[in-house]
Amino acid sequence: MTISEKIFSKASGKAVKAGEFVMADIDRAMTHDITGPLAVEGFYEIMRDKEEKKVWDPSKIVIVFDHQVPADSLNAAANHIMLRKFAREQGIINYDVYEGVCHQVMPEKGHVMPGDLIVGSDSHTCAYGALGAFSTGIGSTDMAAVFASGKLWFKVPETIKFEVNGKFQKHVYSKDMILHLIGDVGVEGARYKAAEYAGSTVREMPISERMTVSNMAIEMGGKAGIIEADSITEKYLQERIPDFELDPYWKSDEDAVYSEVKNYDVSKLEPQVACPHNVDNVKPVTEVEGTKLDQIFVGSCTNGRFEDIEVVAKMMGDEPVAKDVRLLIIPASRTEYMKVLKAGYIEQFMEAGAIVESPCCGPCMGGSFGLLGNGEVGLATSNRNFKGREGSPQSFVYLSSPATAAASALTGEITDPRKV
Length: 420
Ligand SMILES: CC(C)[C@H](C(=O)O)[C@@H](O)C(=O)O
Ligand code: SF4
Fold this sequence. Notes:
It is built from 15 helices and 18 strands. It has 420 residues and is α/β, with parallel strands linked by helices.
């Protein structure tokens, strides 16, 4: 069995294989300030004839406020009021207004375990595969059903295995690897499949780098982006759950059946950039070097962790942000923000002319602030560059690693980090 087949077998109480339909028990459900209100409405609709309108298990629901925080409109404020009221009424203690981006908060606060089946009403819920869970994005109405019953039906997905080997060149990171994979297979390359990332390159990655890779599985259509848990995962989890012990069962068997196995050697991989307006429009940085930029955004659930921001700080040193480009840095959570603060990087960034905002999704989906105007060009460490993603439909978004973003902040144009 693959990891995914094992997880669905546990969740449905019988041995199942890819292609079968199952009714599965959900271990954890996450919702946030944009999709949550609709899920709550749907939940009360489902429960309308019931005397007791209670969720199946309040301890298994996590509500995160991240897309529009602090509230940027009356509409956002109303959504926050509704979700807070729902959490209190239902006894949901895991909700927080200013903790950070949901996909950072979930693993960081110990809500993700290897072997878990997790759903979230956000497409990048696949990020928790970095810890060996099967986690996937669902819609608000499906979430309403989960709130009511703790169950959801699935077709057990086939698995496509990405076997990645080789050591990265200096200034090449897991973001470059995942952009390269997406460029290779395309935005539908893993549609309704679990992407399983394996090989020595993945094994050597710290959790922060693995999260970037799992997070972007959806950008190739993947249902999940799983990395088998190992001693690195165990250490990360023990920092949160002291008595956590790794269960070696949660890995794909040696004779597991994959729909496809794809092999990559990343030892010669150049830094990669996804060009407007699709995530699979990926080019080596050398082909787009010199593209003038108006704004650089370092943050998001893809690359907004301390490790990402540290790369930027170290690469920029005492140098200022180039004239005419705006550098916006948003740590993905309160915890990550505190680490950046304690390391002295906020002061460094402010002196360099950058601006550091409090944890939230920020301009990632053009929602609350930091929008690109007509004709403007942005470079972001986030995960999507669709037309209008960061503001105006007449703007252009490039995606890269934090290292490429830092090198570009020093020059004001897309720059190969290997030159810095
Ligand atoms: C707002 C939400 C529905 C959306 C998603 O599901 O992905 C957002 O987080 C995004 O990244 O586009
Ligand atoms: S940071 Fe961006 S990709 Fe991640 S959840 Fe927020 S809007 Fe979606």
